[in-house]
Each structure stands twice: as C-alpha cells, then as structure tokens.
Amino acid sequence: MIQFGANACAACREMKPVLAALQREHGTRFTVMNVDLISQKHRGYLQRFRIQLMPTQVFFDAAGNEIHRNLGTMSSAAIVARLEGRPS
60: domain CATH number? Predict the structure, then answer.
C-alpha cells in the first residue's frame, strides 16, 4: 500500500504514525509506504497514479496491480482489512 500525501497536509500528517505502526507490526506480511508529493523527485506520481486528493491510499496485489483506492484518512483496522482482502 502506498499513501500519497504531503507534509503540509494535516490529514497526511495524521496518517504517518498509523502507517509507521502498521509497517512495524505487519512489515513481514506487506509493505506500507508514504510518498510526499511535494518532493520534486515524486512529482511525477501525481499524474502516474491519478492523485486528486491528499491523502490517497492505493492498494496493490502481489503482482503490483491496483486493487483498491481510498481518498482521505483510514483507520489502522480498515487498512489491515483491505490489505488482507477483506472489505473495510
């Protein structure tokens, strides 16, 4: 799962500790990444992943195919459920 956001975004900052805790607790099962779209090196992701709102979480299967997308914040439980293939 990749979260696209920015440090200037309050909701994105709110999600950072949630994402960090998920990576610590479940890092052997799946990868959780946070991408700061304000960074010049990540600007291309806006168009590539069609990001229109921050934060946006994009979920991928093991083959790298997008399987779900969420706009806004998500609870830790909802993220885990989605990563495990259950409806959140």
Answer: 3.40.30.10
